[in-house]
Amino acid sequence: MRLVQYKCPSCGANVHVEEGKDRYFCSNCGAELHVDSGEVIVRHVDEAEVIRAKLEVDKEMQRRIEADKAGRSLRRLFIGLIIFVIASIILMRFE
Ligand SMILES: [Zn+2]
Asked: C-alpha dihedral over 80, 86, 88, 93, to 10 degrees?
């Protein structure tokens, strides 16, 4: 395995990469780097953006769970009401 030396376009540090590898991370600044026909491209991963996107998904999931819960308790209330009405009708008949 041959190591190729590239300069990280993000921080300027020298990074050694296995020849043929087209995706790696800078050991100095953590930037995601891509090698495209000998050219090093920074595909910077914005950690804050990743966390924000995850939180957005979590919030949406939470919202759906809450909506589902609300729908279920409403259904339960409705069923309870129907049972109450039926029971009342039956009881009235026996009076
Ligand atoms: Zn770097």
From this structure: -170
Rounded Cα–Cα distance for residues 70 and 80 (Å)? 15
The alpha carbon of 28 and the centre of ligand 1 are apart by a number of angstroms equal to 5
Tens-place pLDDT, residues 14-38: 888 888 788 888 888 888 888 877 7
Ligand 1 center to residue 14 CA distance, Å?
8
pTM of the model: 0.40
**Residue 78 CA, ligand 1 centroid: distance in Å:** 61
Give Cα separations from 50 to 1, 29, 34, 54, 92 (angstroms).
33, 17, 19, 6, 63
Burial 29-53 (b: 16+ CB within 10 A, else e): eebebebeeeebeeeeeeeeeeeee
The domain locations on the chain are 3-42, 46-95
